[in-house]
Amino acid sequence: MKKLYFLLVLFFSSLSLVAQDRITEFVFHANRYAGVDASSFRMRLGRQYRKSHRDLDRYYRMFGNNWGNVGIALEISRVSGRKLDDISFYFKKHGRRGWGSVLVDIGITPHSDWYDPFYDRINEYDGYWEESYRCYKRHPKHHYKRHKHHYKRRYYKWDDDDDDDDDDDDD
After folding, report:
1. How far is Cα 45 from Cα 48, in angstroms, rounded to an integer?
2. Which of 24, 83, 100, 153 has the greatest CB tally within 10 Å of its CB?
């Protein structure tokens, strides 16, 4: 009986470790991509969750200056229907224990209806952030490259600015 109990405890603790590992990977990949292209990352989060840049900047400060934490918090808010201020309270309360403790307090556990949709979206966006970072690293010059025909017009001494045919600068 003790062996069975021990195996069950070991099994459920390994499930929570795997879940925590997926969140850690998401936070890592999101931060890595935001580190090279923060404006694109913010734009994507703003469109995804219908938040303004001002709100996203406030959430960034609220969740420890970490874009990955902002992404997790926005997804928890979307799935659970809780406000981000409530999630921030739990995040500050369980800061050292990680997002797993926050999820348990909010009610996103393996037996809840929110568990599968939450982790499906986390996996989807984790892959997106990772692929975006890899794409950026393969072609970094293409992200900020000016168009080849985008030059300033050069004016020469002999060029008059009016449209008449004579060479004077008067109209």
Report:
1. 5
2. 100
Paired tokens of 167: 């060479």
Distance CA 1, CA 17 (A): 24
Q: Which residues contact 65 (CB under 8 A, 6 or more apart)?
A: none
CA–CA separation, 145 and 135 (whole Å): 15
Question: CA of 44: how far to CAs of 87, 140, 165, in Å?
Answer: 21, 19, 52
- Closest to 76 (Cα-Cα) out of 43, 98, 44: 98
Could you give the CA distance from residue 81 to residue 106 in angstroms, rounded to a whole number?
A: 10
Residue that is written with structure tokens 């000016």 in the block? 146
Q: Which tokens sit at 74?
A: 């926005």
122 Cβ partners below 8 Å, 6+ apart? 22, 23, 26, 72, 75
Helix (H) or strand (E) run with residue 12 in it: helix 2-36
Report yes or no on whether pTM surpasses 0.85.
Answer: no
pLDDT (tens digit per residue) in 53-76: 999 999 999 998 999 999 999 999
Contacts of 24 (CB under 8 A, 6+ apart): 98
Q: Mean pLDDT across the stretch 105-116? A: 89
Give residue 20's identity as a one-letter amino acid code: Q
What type of residue sits at position 31?
N
